[in-house]
Structures are given as C-alpha cells and as structure tokens.
Amino acid sequence: MTTTTPDLSENAINALVSQGLAAFTNAVNLAELKAARIAHSGDKSALAVANRAIAELPGAERKAAGQLIGSARTRLNQAFTAREAELSEVELALKLASEGVDVTLPVALAPHGEPHPITALMEDLGDVFIAMGWEIAEGPELEAEWMNFDALNMGPHHPARATSDTLFIDPIENHLVMRTHTSPVQIRTMLSRPLPIYVVCPGTTYRADEFDATHVPVFHQLEGLVVDKGITLGHLKGTLDHLAKVMFGGVRTRIRPSYFPFTEPSAEIDLECFVCRGDSVGNPDTFCRTCGSEGWIEWGGCGIVNPRVLTACGIDTAVYSGFAFGMGVERTLMFRNGASDMRDMVEGDIRFSRALIGGAR
Ligand code: PHE
C-alpha cells in the first residue's frame, strides 16, 4: 500500500513507461524479461498503483487520466510482446546450438561381447562344407551307449568303453553315456537320412580326462561323413586337403595308417608342423617343441567307413561306400590361432576371445 498519492501527470506516467521500456530492452533472457514486466506493469507496479488512484480523482479528470494510463499500459504491453519474441528466438537458437551433435566426432564405442573362439571356429569349419553343398547334422550329447560304441563296431570289451575314459550316467543299466566323440552322429545320420550322404557334425564331446594345457574333459569335435557310390580314400584325402588349405593356408597334410573300429582302412590325418615346417627333423640343434621334431602334428582320425557299420545301418555295401573323419576343434584352434593352453578356452575371459577373433570381426 502506498501512502503518498501517486503522481498522475503525463510526465510522471511517461517516465514510468520509459523505465519499463528500458527494463524490457535490458532484459537479456526471458526470465529477466518476466521479472521486468512484474516490476513495471504487474499488480504492484507504480503504474498499477497509479491506475487504482484514478478512482479517487475528481470526475472530470478521470477520463484523461484513464486514457493516459491506458495508452501507457498498451505501449508497455506491445514492447513486452516484441521483446519476448526476440528473446524467445535467441533462447531457441542457444538451445539448438547447445544440443547440436557433431556426428563426425570420434566416439568411444561401448564394450561388446565376442563369440567364443570355439563357437566361431565351428561355424567357420561348417561353412567350408556348406560351400561344397554338404549338410550340417546334429545329435544328442547324452547318447545311448549303443550309438556311441556298439553301432560303431566297438564291442563290449573295447578299451574305450572302460569307465576311465567314458562318463557313464547313473543308473548304469540305462546304458546312457555322455558321447565320447561325434561319431554316433554318423549312425544317426545313416539311419535317418536318404542316400547319398554328405554331412558334417560339429559338436560337444565328453571324456573323463585330465584338465591341463592339452586336455579338457568337455571338448569339441568336427565329424564328417560321406556315403555315396564309388567313394575312395582319394575323396577323403582330397576333402581333408581342401579343409586344411582353407584353415591353415599352404600347410601340407599326410594320412598315416592307424586303427579305428568303425573305419577300415583307418588313418590319422597329420598337418605339417606350422612352427618348424619340418626343418627341425633330424637336426638336434633345432629341436621343435610343437611337433617334437617329428615335422608333423596329429590333427584327427579318418578312414573308409567299415562295411560292418554300413550294414548295421541297412546300407548295401555292394553299391555304397563312404569315408569319415573326426578332428578336435580345440586342437584346430591351437594350430590355427596359436592358442597354446586349452584351459584358456574354458575360462570365459573376454580378453582371450578378443585376442583370437575380436580384431578379425
Ligand atoms: N571318433 C574318432 C575319435 O574321436 C575320430 C574318427 C572319426 C576317426 C571318424 C575315424 C573316423 O578319435
């Protein structure tokens, strides 16, 4: 409440307008402008006080005073609206500038996972065969003992059936094992697919083995099986040579006589030592720890499918023959990527995956 009577002269009112206009002009943002409006034309402003005082004037003076103050308020309102538009534009421009994104700036990428090197390698191995028109076959990891052994011509007294190698599942009368190799998928494939057969089976396998740099109890194999008319050892060697070429570049392969109950003849497939390339053989000064100066390292087993196995699956051995091979995926990863300790493959450290495949993807 003002105690003094406000000055309603034209000069006084114009002075109030000038102060208001100056305050609006000086406001540099909308908040300041709003404060200036409250101060100069709000309910408690000098102008509002003057307006209320009109009622106390003698009747004859009221009209002129009303017009004077009315036009003063109009001028202030117009100036306010104009300044408000200006400042809104300025503020919008500032906001847009501050929210602008330079898409050309380098950014720190959030860390992301990698496929496990074994998974990635199994896919790569599968792709080599898909490209040749083969199919991928799969089978259960918990397998019937008959599929894992008997059907593969491994009689009940075969050493691989001893509990030291095989993980048997309780109760033993159910004759279930964790498959010790991917070869039972050969049997499942021959029993379920039409001839001819061209399949690979990448899968997990189990043995009651040590856990050390070169053994893990849960490991992976890639099995291959072909059954067609006129299949020979030459087809087997050609296929493995192709696989070795894709996986290891110019490394040579050899097959060396061996024994598996389900192939006849059987062989081991060896790779030329990727470290010494055979140069250490017979040279005591340059012993090669990778191949023991043999010049070759064992990659897997293979052979011509034993006719007894084909017969057990109802395939006419007078018309059809086949070859099969199986190799360790962990060993393949060791040879291919220089991973020296298999334990790294099961520990799940992302740095291992990154080092092996991260950069390649
Ligand atoms: N299953 C054999 C093993 O685990 C490998 C093999 C597969 C050998 C196919 C011959 C043919 O050792």
Helical residues, percent:
25-40%
Molecular shape: rod-shaped
Structural category is alpha+beta
The strand order across the widest sheet is: 1-4-5-9-8-7-6
Q: Quick one: biggest sheet?
A: 7 strands, mixed
Approximately how much beta-strand content do the residues carry?
A: 15-25%
What is the H/E string?
Answer: HHHHHEEHEHEEHEEEHEHH
Computed Rg: 44 Å
Unreliable spans: none
Ligand inventory: phenylalanine
Kindly report how far apart the N and C termini lie: 78 Å
Instruction: Report mean pLDDT, rounded to a whole number.
Output: 91
Count of runs of 4 or more consecutive helical residues: 11
Kindly list the characteristics that best describe this protein:
single chain; binds phenylalanine; 11 helices; rod-shaped; 361 residues; two-stranded antiparallel ribbon; seven-stranded mixed beta sheet; alpha+beta
